[in-house]
Amino acid sequence: MKLKSFGKGGIHPNPSKLTSGMPIIEVGVSSEIRLELAESIGVPSRCIVRPGQTVSAGEMIAEAAAFVSAPVHSPVAGTVKRIEKVRDPQGFWREAVIIATEHIETAVDEVEAELSPRTQEEVDALTPKEIIDIVGDMGIVGLGGATFPTRVKLSIPEGKKAEIVILNGAECEPYLTCDETIMCGYPDRIVAGCRLIMKAVDAPKAVIGIEANKPQAIATFRRYLKGCDDIEVVKLRTRYPQGGEKQLIKAVTGREVPEGGLPVDAGAVVDNVATALAIYEAVYNRKPLTQRVVTVTGPLLRKPGNFMVKIGTTISTLIEAAGGLPEDTGKVIAGGPMMGKAMSRLDAPTTKAISGVLVLPKSMSGRHPEEPCIRCAKCVSGCPMGLEPYQMMNLSIMKRFEEIKDLHVLSCLECGCCSYVCPSHRPLLDYIRYAKQEIRKLPK
Amino acid sequence: MEPKLTVSLSPHIHSRNSIDRCMWNVIIALIPALAVAVWTFRTDAVLTIGVCVAACLATEWLIERFLFHRPCTLANGSALITGLLLAFNLPSILPWWMAVIGSVVAIGIGKMSFGGLGCNIWNPALVGRVFLLISFPAAMTTWPTGVSSGLTHFSGASGADATTGATLLATLNSGNGQIGLDNVDFLGMAVGQMNGSLGEVGGIAILIGLVYLLCTRVITWHIPISIIASAALFSWAFGGNPLLDIFAGGLLLGAVFMATDYVTSPMTHTGQLIYGFMIGFITIVIRRYGSYPEGMSFAILLMNSFTPLINRYCHPRLFGRRKKK
Fold this sequence. Notes:
The structure holds two protein chains of two kinds. By secondary structure, chain A is α/β, with parallel strands linked by helices.
């Protein structure tokens, strides 16, 4: 049987899932937590605490400052030490709240005792509007890496109709296994989260899309969903970038999101499985989003694994938990190797966006020297959006941005397939990013 | 102390494909045809191929060293391929100095005058071949005797028999026209018992090369298959024999190794199909109505010239393209 997948382009890199099937390990709370205010796409949240103030675990420390913005909560009980600029993983200065942790051992348990979970009856009584408000108040953002506020995603614009909810369990990035781990561990909670999304957007059915290289996750869900006819598990052909929102919709429904449109224009709402889990925790257990599963992996790490991490823990703490930074490290990446961002420093805090920390040895950190384009067309046939990367790069070098815009460069999802396949090692995506940046500056 | 980390933009991994790997795969794919050439034409083949390859490599090295002042790129195999393909397009008994001239033109004018690898408009080997064909028409159509012409027991008006120095297509073109199909030794033709240029005689060997190129994903099926299909179609439409047109002459060599040259062929699959279709059509028209018995070189060079135009109008289908209202 031919497995479902998106239409055109794409690549099949070596999956390198070193941490597949490994259990989730809790990382201890560190004595200091740094919470960035710009935890989501859009407007950074507005700080509502003062230095010296004590906060309890789960307390909101910054509120949403606009429609596209998400609040931030403290993962620990402690005292606000400072509010200052810290460097983020890429080295940029960002406003952050620094909290000194108290009662390191008891912090989590205390909170769980304080809050009584909602019963199934109470949850059933919630209206769609109330679910969306809880999701917003609990600071939930897309955990696939884009950190788009989930409240905005669930608020279907006037006149549009969501027909299907798609849970994204593709995890097409090599190395990462955080989604696989939670899919195998918490199918019940993910499905409950999925039903909450379905209720919030008023969609009659849902699909969980999982790539074929995660048979255990597929089997777990199939077993759990036996007899359900409103939620279906779809096995997808292993192919990158299947986890791209538009690609996943195409793979599952066969529909294409129109250029410049939103998923709901194709009748779909897509959320990551980790987001569904966070929604479950927020609605049933009244827990804000203050922790996530992060895959810490790399060919040289002594103890790679999937870690449950408090948002705000420094990256170096995570690497210590995985056995420490190897001698020969050349590059540390926040995320996967295809779309992740290389970090310049390790004292930066974990954010909601970080799904993985990939430690690469020096031998895998460099780039090959660039050679002339031989017009092999591999970038054209590799592009999942049907663009012509070679041409955009040439025009970008010549700064002919208007012409690049006419080649639909703004459709580019920056998946990196073009740079990956280029036999001349040309940095196609670098130039395309540059062009996109310059086009946004052009007068409309 | 903070470790020193490399910071670069994604993607952080690469397919490990390289120009060198593509080129050396093409060279491997050329080996079966090379073996048939040596088997059919013996030492003549070895000499001609050796001269062409050496002259191409030398020309490229000299130009890069003394004109471009660029590092040597001979190791990527592209000059070697040009040398091999040029030799494959020459008669085995061509005087060696003509082969040298062809090589210098192929690399010097066909490739380096445009700026080197990736910049040329026409297939360099074909530029060399056509230059020789126009400059030395007699030598370029003198074939060795003692090699089967591809006919088993044909005796036409000129008294040609199976051992004259003429190619099958030349015999057809010179007006000895109506050959019964049973006179053509298809099996011999397919395995290399046929007169012609060095590389074009082993149809089966070239197809083995095609399978290798497809399996290693160096090329896609679009160009070779569309050329073969359109040549067969028009051969049939113009009252010829499709099988004969495909296996005789340089059509297969051109379809598999020359027209598929990355640099000079279109970038999209649609464009490649148009390009291949037109090459097949032009080849058959030249063979039927032109004064040359062979049309493949001209067809490919003509369509090479159209490649930028095809690229301009054939874009890939944009994901989520909105329908025009």
